[in-house]
Amino acid sequence: MFKQINKQEMKKGIIKLSSLTTGKSAVIIEFEKDDLHIKLMEMGCVPGETVKIEKIAPLGDPISIMVAGYNLSLRKTEADHIWVEEI
Fold first, then answer.
1. Which stretches make up the Ferrous iron transporter FeoA-like domain (predicted)?
2. Entry pTM
């Protein structure tokens, strides 16, 4: 679950959740290794789950995502820890 994303994988469309724009959807691939991943998983952000960017605040923080059937607000720094593949 915790591996380093290399440049080849980034070319395949694996990016940070924080870099998606409003209306885009992606599948969670993995998390960066830290204690935040437990909190995110408890909120429904698990690998394989589809997320959609619903809204982004005018100043870019926080962002609202749809995950596991409900809306969740994340700080941009939290979204920086989630690697996704855009669909």
1. 15-86
2. 0.76
For residue 26, give the H/E element and its range: strand 25-31
Structure tokens at 17: 């959740």
How far apart (Å, rounded) are the C-alpha atoms in residues 77 and 69? 23
CA distance 6 to 52: 24
Amino acid identity for residue 21 in this structure? T
CA pair distance 42, 19, nearest whole angstrom: 22
Give pLDDT tens digits for 11-66. 567 899 999 999 999 999 988 877 788 888 888 888 899 999 999 999 888 999 99
Mention the CATH class of domain 14-52+73-86: mainly beta
